[in-house]
Amino acid sequence: MYRNHPLAAHIRQLRHKPYFRPSLYGCIVLLSVYVLYHTTHPQSSSSIDFPTSNVYQPPVEVSEEVWVERANHVKLAFLHAYHGYERYALPHDELKPLSGRYQDDFGGWGVTLFDSLDTMLLLDLKKEYERAIPYVEKAVFAMPEDDHARYFETVIRYLGGLLSAYAISNETVLLERADRLADKLDNVFNTPSGFPMFGVNPSSGAVSGIEIGVLAEMASLQMEYTMLAKATGKKRWWDRANTVIQALASANLKYTGGMLPIKWNLTTAQPHDVHLSVGAQADSAHEYLLKQFLLTARTDKTSLEMYLRATTHVIANLLYLSPTRHMLYVTDSDTSPFDARGKPSHVFEHLSCFFPGLLALGAHTLPLDDLKSLGINFEALGSESSFGHAGKAYRQLSQYNLKELHLWAAEGLAQTCWLTYADEPTGLGPDEIEMKTSKFSDGFLWMDAMDRWKASGARGIPPGVEDKVPDVYTEEDRIRGNGLRRDYAIKRKGYLLRPETIESLYLLWRITGDSKWRHRGWKIFEAIERHTKTPYGYASLRTVEIVPSLKDDEMPSYFLAETLKYLYLMFVSEDLVPLDKWVFNTEAHPFPVFAWTEEEKERFNI
Ligand SMILES: *[C@@H]1O[C@H](CO)[C@@H](O)[C@H](O)[C@H]1NC(C)=O
Ligand SMILES: *[C@@H]1O[C@H](CO)[C@@H](O)[C@H](O)[C@H]1NC(C)=O
């Protein structure tokens, strides 16, 4: 189904490059290993010896052909999950992996199929992709009268999946369906602010939701609508994205130091609370500030400035170190006009584990140590007249090389995300933990520790960034409640097959080239195979603390769209999705970076 699109050709070309380049000898060795492997391992997914319990061992370097094998294991995992879905759930939304039944929570139009399209193209699964296309052709996005579709989920999963697969394959029907779906959702924008409502019935056009919107749900559409405008040439889709960008940029953020809070009034386009987070209900809105800038070939400076404000506030006020193990974490907080730090909850969410990857992507792609080259005056971004108490954070961060600082924060946070996996007997991380704070202070701000480290000569690795050794609980430890030995208590025990930690490990591997991140990714994949696999697919875990695992009857579509895709991209030798040419939406659907033409700029009024 690939046509002669330059992007498809790019992917094809990469795929056919030899995996191993140093010498002809190397190629021959690799080829023999590869052939031998494939002739002796017809069922390689069952031949692997996955460890039964998690005992920490430092990674052993392996050759590139082992990584080729590992990527292939992920491909087999994808096929196991997708074939289970095709056989037992299609055309419904999601497979129930324990009972072999299905569920419909995302419109009932087959969300797993739409969410998997570009993964199939990247993994070169032509048969599955070709079987999926007729379902895309038939999709009319109809819904019974008393029901509604969640706008945000529909955009990131369906629209994102269609647009990404279109960018890779140039298959016209994918774009047509995306355009049709956006049409059917369009009533959500009938608000005075131009921020979307929560839900809509695509058949009747009836909208649902209250006057107060949630940040992530109202401000994670810019990439999809920009991409749709570029591909269809329709100004109205660009207008939808741009209205949201401009409304965010002109909101009054005095009380939150320039960072976007969670709740917003959809009538006035102004904040409705002062709660700050990079986790649930906020995450992808912060993500899209950077990614919108990257997608548009670095022209949307408004979004970039908002990204710099958000990350400056987070680094100065929401990053903490745990008291004993010095685990770096990001938490949420209610701020106030007089207190930038506010009241931190010290809860650390799995959802926040995308943030280290985002920081690393920013450090990799932006001239953070030379913002002047973009015409940005860093300190002026935090002008106290517009952003209340923000000034102090900008003065503090200006003392550092900002690129280095963002990357340190990324590495320290990713370290913690990984540690919460490696600390568990299953090797999988819990959905939410609460960090211990000392009796004498309400937590240790990372930047305070950084300032002390700097004042004492900045020797060695900065606080919170150093490698740590996991502390795996025994059953007895758990029952005796030796919980806080590890510096945190588990608040939500489940592992919901989520991608965020893996996403950050993937980005750190690509950006730093340090193979420890890739090895950690492999350990997590082994744990997924060992503890979540069922005869039908893969199942969320009820608790990460018990082996053998207790499973729930759920296999979210993001497991195929994100978790398995990032794992595959981490192990495969070629850089299939170069980070300077593609940008992932928040559901891991890659969109190609593009520049507006002069004609588009004029017509769209950019
Ligand atoms: C993509 O497909 C369209 C319509 O089928 C065609 O006109 C166009 O030339 C194709 N573009 C590329 C780059 O292959
Ligand atoms: C939203 O703002 C409008 C206009 O100021 C106000 O009348 C309304 O009460 C606000 N909504 C809520 C739920 O606070």
Automatic annotation (TrEMBL):
**Enzyme class, UniProt record, top EC level:** hydrolase
**Single GO term (MF):** calcium ion binding
Q: In which pathway does it act?
A: Protein modification; protein glycosylation
> Where Ca(2+) is bound, by residue?
T586
* Claim: Manganese is one of the keywords in the record: no
Co-factor requirement: Ca(2+)
Keyword presence, Protein biosynthesis:
no
Return the similarity comment.
Answer: Belongs to the glycosyl hydrolase 47 family.
Task: Give the source's domain of life in one word.
Answer: Eukaryota
Keywords in alphabetical order, please: Calcium, Disulfide bond, Glycosidase, Hydrolase, Membrane, Metal-binding, Transmembrane, Transmembrane helix
- Which terms under GO biological process does the entry name? carbohydrate metabolic process; ERAD pathway
Reactions catalysed, as given in the entry:
N(4)-(alpha-D-Man-(1->2)-alpha-D-Man-(1->2)-alpha-D-Man-(1->3)-[alpha-D-Man-(1->3)-[alpha-D-Man-(1->2)-alpha-D-Man-(1->6)]-alpha-D-Man-(1->6)]-beta-D-Man-(1->4)-beta-D-GlcNAc-(1->4)-beta-D-GlcNAc)-L-asparaginyl-[protein] (N-glucan mannose isomer 8A1,2,3B1,3) + 3 H2O = N(4)-(alpha-D-Man-(1->3)-[alpha-D-Man-(1->3)-[alpha-D-Man-(1->6)]-alpha-D-Man-(1->6)]-beta-D-Man-(1->4)-beta-D-GlcNAc-(1->4)-beta-D-GlcNAc)-L-asparaginyl-[protein] (N-glucan mannose isomer 5A1,2) + 3 beta-D-mannose; N(4)-(alpha-D-Man-(1->2)-alpha-D-Man-(1->2)-alpha-D-Man-(1->3)-[alpha-D-Man-(1->2)-alpha-D-Man-(1->3)-[alpha-D-Man-(1->2)-alpha-D-Man-(1->6)]-alpha-D-Man-(1->6)]-beta-D-Man-(1->4)-beta-D-GlcNAc-(1->4)-beta-D-GlcNAc)-L-asparaginyl-[protein] (N-glucan mannose isomer 9A1,2,3B1,2,3) + 4 H2O = N(4)-(alpha-D-Man-(1->3)-[alpha-D-Man-(1->3)-[alpha-D-Man-(1->6)]-alpha-D-Man-(1->6)]-beta-D-Man-(1->4)-beta-D-GlcNAc-(1->4)-beta-D-GlcNAc)-L-asparaginyl-[protein] (N-glucan mannose isomer 5A1,2) + 4 beta-D-mannose
Q: Where are the transmembrane segments?
A: 20-37
Residue ranges annotated as coiled coil are none
State the organism named in the record.
Dendrothele bispora (strain CBS 962.96)
Q: Which GO terms describe its cellular component?
A: endoplasmic reticulum; membrane
Q: What is the protein name stated in its UniProt record?
A: alpha-1,2-Mannosidase
Q: Which InterPro entries match?
A: 6hp_glycosidase-like_sf, Glyco_hydro_47, Glycosyl_Hydrolase_47, Seven-hairpin_glycosidases
Q: List the disulfide bonds.
A: C353-C417
